[in-house]
Amino acid sequence: MNLKKKRVWIYLALTLALILYVLVKSVNLNPLYLDGALFWAFTITVYTLVWVLTGMGGVRMVQDELHRGVFELVPGGKFPKQAKWIIGIPWAAIAVTVIGSSVFFNCSAYRSQIGESEIRKFSEEVQAIDISQVPVVDEQLARKLADKKLGERPSMGSQVVLGEPTIQMVDGKLQWVVPLHHSGFFKWLTNLEGTPGYITVSATNVKDVEYVDGKYLKYQPGAYFFQNLTRYTRFGAALFTGIVDYSFELDDSGEPYWVISTYKNLRGFSLPEATGVVLVHATTGETQKYAIENVPSWVDRVQPESFVMQQINNRGEYINGFLNWANKDKFRTSEGEIIVYNNGQCYLFTGLTSVGSDESAIGFIMVNMVTKDSFQYQMAGATESAAQSSAQGKVQHLKYTASFPLILNVNSEPTYFMTLKDYEGLIKQYAMVSVTDYSVVGTGETIQAALRDYEQAIKNTGAQPNLDQSAEKKSVTGTVERIAAEYNGDSTDYRMILSEYPNLIFNANSQLSPELALTVPGDRVTLEYFAEDIRVTKEVGTFDNLMYQQK
User: Is 352 a residue whose pLDDT tops 60?
Assistant: First the structure.
């Protein structure tokens, strides 16, 4: 075989190997991304070496003067100068880009990528959450409940495995959605139409678990060939686009989609920034690409959590420049984050703590997972881990473990809420811990019981309710059914139940009105209480005994 034919066959084999590699690894072919740049630099290098070596006759081993085996190029052995340039330029370009996009030259860009956070007052912006809508099921428990539901169908247990649970708002209902993945190659081969559905787990009710079948998931991470989600997306809609963060979401009618974030790098190969999403219908494979401003309203996530957390930490690390040896004003995120929903919007919520501080938070930040708008709440308090330890300490004899806490607004007070679970991961109690004073803890077997215990713990400290006097008040008129007085060490509190509102307890301090001491069951009264207060016991702002006025 002559040299020309040999070179053709080598190039052909090399090309086939590269095509196979691209298909298997779903490589991004855009050289503006690091993986794409490395692929093209490697390809150019290999092709150039083949051209040089075949043109020079190849390589052989010879013995030198010391009788050692060495390699030499034949004939001639001189490496062409142009080949050095062809190989060197792409690798040099990568090196220059990596160095040029480092924080040393782009400190301001690293610091400002998250954008300016709007400083907000906690009591005004973090709306009280309806007790019935508090998410008590975390990811670990959601997976356990989904696995139990799957176990009710023995024939399915050997065919599928659970995918990654994703919390989301579906048609106004907060729930975890768990896709079903193929358990192996042969299971996929015998079920090419896809796995038969997904499992939904209510985030607010451990008994609300549903197996949804008939919604076949043909395209998924656990599939093979061109049913593999990454491969299908890469060669269908994102050949030259950065894609990351695959999340399984349902539209409001229950149709299954994969929401895949697209991104670009703001500086060289650094500072990835979400630009939109690719939506892939898990059954039909229908693919649509959206910019951030045009994503459908049911899509909860566009911003990858890893991007957001890194950007927050970059801002804290470089708040005063790159060379801040004294760590002045530096901060970082606390150990953990959680997805919360506020007014129907999806947010990432995490605490902020000073660099070097372990138990105290300096504030909190909420980042909209679609728009990346961020809101910062500056307040001193305990970190999430400190709150977990405090809650576990109150029930240490039971050896319960606390879930990662979320923030509730309890009458304008930032309050950590978490579940207390046994060694099986089942919810046994609920806990509330004050953010500003994590020694104030309330626990109970129901949320209402934990709330009452928490209120009593606050009272035991001698603290007065932190009511926002500018908050909206609600006026009610009714008939006193029961009333009782309790001395709190400074003044007298009157608690009453109105016949028209049997599920509420109204608490009024004697300083509000002298008529309180004269009020008896059967009297008609008008009172105002703070509408944002989520507690069973409502703090009364004004009181008027209508019967007393008539007399």
Answer: yes
